[in-house]
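Sorry, any thoughts here?
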Amino acid sequence: MPKLLIRGLRLRCPACGTSHIFRGWFTMHEACPHCSRRFERGPGYLLGSIYVNYGITALLVIVIYFGLFYADRLGDTQLLVVSLLVALLFPVWFFRYARSLWIAFDEHWDPWPNEEERQQLARRKS
């Protein structure tokens, strides 16, 4: 699992660790150019990455808010503005990492290709 976590944080293919998952800021490769591992295995597959992004963003906003609140350095309005900026900007930046970590998590629990995907690959080759 640590190997997959590192590959996820480096935005690399969880199966081989060689190729990048993204070709642009928001655009993913359909499959790994090196090992052909599909990055979107089916409809709704990447939905879990939204939960990863939301959970980490919520945790970060809570920690920052209470950290600044108890430091007593910012006024209420400033505290709200900082929290709002983190809540709006962090998920956009973290989008790629959330997807990459979700794909790595899935690779650990359901390695590619599973039996159904093997059959699909065999049919395509025929």
